[in-house]
Amino acid sequence: MSEILPIRKIIHVDMDAFYASVEQLDNPELKGKPIAVGGSEKRGVVSAASYEARKFGVKSAMSGMQAKRLCPELLFVRPRFDRYHEISKKIRRIFFDYTDLVEPLSLDEAYLDVTQNKKGNPSASLIAKEIRERIFKEVGLTASAGISINKFIAKVASDYNKPNGQKTVNPEDVISFLEQLDIRKFYGVGKVTAEKMYQMGIFTGLDLKQKSIEYLEEHFGKSGKYYYYVVRGIHNSEVKPNRIRKSLAAERTFNENLSSEIFMLEKLQQIAKEVSRRLTKSRVAGKTITLKIKYSDFTLQTRSKTLPYFVSDHSVILETAKDLLYQEKLNNSVRLLGISISNLNTDKTPSNKTQTEKEKSVSVQLKFEF
To answer: Which residue intervals define the domain UmuC in the entry (predicted)?
Structure first.
């Protein structure tokens, strides 16, 4: 039996090349130039790249050496996270002028539910336009936005007219929009999954829609059910203003590869203090401590240990990280170490429902102003 589910007006706001744009804002000499935030031409990893750098193929998570090869004129800038937090707070204050239902995903993006909003404006599209104009006027940065009936489609749409643009997917256009969409554009489909889908003859949303839920679960596990429903426009996760933190971490990339465990312990002490500081600031504690090791050949290894009690003290975190470091012999010299803590005391196990909203068929109300 078909059931009419609540149609929401969701906006996904995504800042354009946020870290790099802040650097260009604060330093006019960098405007119009290819810049990378983080890393260097010899070491480290790029955290963000300006659009001028992206034209050469430079992107986040790329090694500084590779980025420099792609773009010889690339300028490296040290990240200033305190400044990014400061700007992010200004942007969020603008969001709260329109709705209290704001769910930040990171410093540079957030969902807004404006179904009922403080301005009494029935048009989510006009609200998104006004928000983007205010961000540019009051902060000096550009933002892109996606507007639709749920978080999934809004996030996909926000990437559609980047940079400095927006796209609205009206309720009556949802199905055709998703059917024509390249599978690589689906939020939640990564590079590896996209390649796997291509090999299976799934290139668009329409191709994905032809597959049964049993087929998708067989080939993609739990994600199969997610793919089955989102391609039908069904994704009823609410905008959650207070997202529950699942983990907290800190890491360091070194200027020189470390081969001595003595030097590594010195670095781990600094990282453990930073993790403890962040735990204290967030007023949380956790049980599972994970040591992240990236070797000089870029291979990654993680080692975890779960304690019988919640911890936030840096000395306990450090001692556990030491145990994990000595747990087995290192494979190579080390370029990065990180410590994360999960299984936090904020974790809540959701109650099981006999039938979730995702599992109900949906009837879309077409006369709904966007």
So the answer is: 10-190
